[in-house]
């Protein structure tokens, strides 16, 4: 596992954070799926560890109850309790992003994806970075061939 401080911040910044969503009600299952075990670990713990083992600098886990917190309290992650989790996944995303807003990029993952590993997260980040660089280069070339402008600046004359 990579070295992190107690707030889940990676020593050697990459600028990418991870938000693990674990606040759902699991109404169809009838029990918190976050606490289901897969290969000897609960789903919430497995997802948090995958994010910690990835290149993400900071890991925030959004939970809907204190019960989930006990599954990951020994891990170097920031835990956010979303008291409004019943209003939908967007409230959990918002709660996670508020805690991780200083990052250059964010990976959002769900705790009920047991095959989401650090390797998969790292590949996603790498592919996204490569695509972003290509897009930026294309945009730069297009701007260089066009008239310079500054969006939001207007002439009053």
Architecture overview:
The protein is of the alpha/beta class. The chain has one domain (16-141): Spore Coat Polysaccharide Biosynthesis Protein SpsA, Chain A (Alpha-Beta Complex). It is built from four helices and six strands; from the N terminus they run βββαβαβαβα. The protein has helices spanning 43-53, 66-72, 89-99, 118-144; strands at 16-22, 37-38, 41-42, 58-63, 78-81, 105-110. The longest helix has 27 residues, at 118-144. It is globular and about 40 Å long.
Question: What can be said about this structure in brief?
Answer:
This protein has 157 residues and is α/β, with parallel strands linked by helices. The protein contains four helices and six strands.
N-to-C order of helices and strands: EEEHEHEHEH
Shape: globular
Count up the helices.
Answer: 4
CATH topology: Spore Coat Polysaccharide Biosynthesis Protein SpsA, Chain A
Strand content: 15-25%
Q: What is the level-2 CATH architecture name?
A: Alpha-Beta Complex
Give the strand order of the largest sheet, numbering strands 1, 2, ... along the chain.
5-4-1-6
Distance between the termini: 60 Å
Count of individual beta strands: 6
Give the tags.
single chain, 157 residues, alpha/beta, Spore Coat Polysaccharide Biosynthesis Protein SpsA, Chain A, four-stranded parallel beta sheet, two-stranded antiparallel sheet, 6 strands, disordered C terminus
Give the arrangement of secondary structure elements.
Layout: E1 16-22, E2 37-38, E3 41-42, H1 43-53, E4 58-63, H2 66-72, E5 78-81, H3 89-99, E6 105-110, H4 118-144
Parallel strand pairs: 1-4, 1-6, 4-5
Antiparallel strand pairs: 2-3
């Amino acid at each position: 596992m990579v070295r992190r401080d107690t707030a889940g911040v990676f020593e050697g910044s990459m600028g990418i954070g991870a938000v693990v969503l674990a606040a759902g009600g699991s109404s169809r299952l009838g029990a918190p799926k976050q606490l289901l075990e897969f290969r000897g670990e609960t789903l919430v713990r497995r997802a948090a560890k995958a994010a910690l083992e990835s290149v993400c600098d900071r890991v925030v886990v959004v939970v809907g109850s204190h019960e989930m917190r006990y599954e990951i309290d020994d891990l170097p992650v920031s835990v956010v309790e979303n008291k409004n989790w019943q209003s939908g996944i967007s409230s959990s995303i918002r709660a996670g992003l508020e805690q991780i807003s200083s990052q250059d990029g964010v990976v959002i993952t769900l705790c009920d994806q047991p095959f989401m590993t650090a390797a998969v997260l790292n590949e996603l980040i790498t592919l996204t970075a490569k695509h972003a660089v290509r897009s930026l280069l294309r945009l730069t070339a297009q701007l260089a061939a066009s008239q310079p402008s500054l969006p939001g600046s207007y002439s009053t004359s």
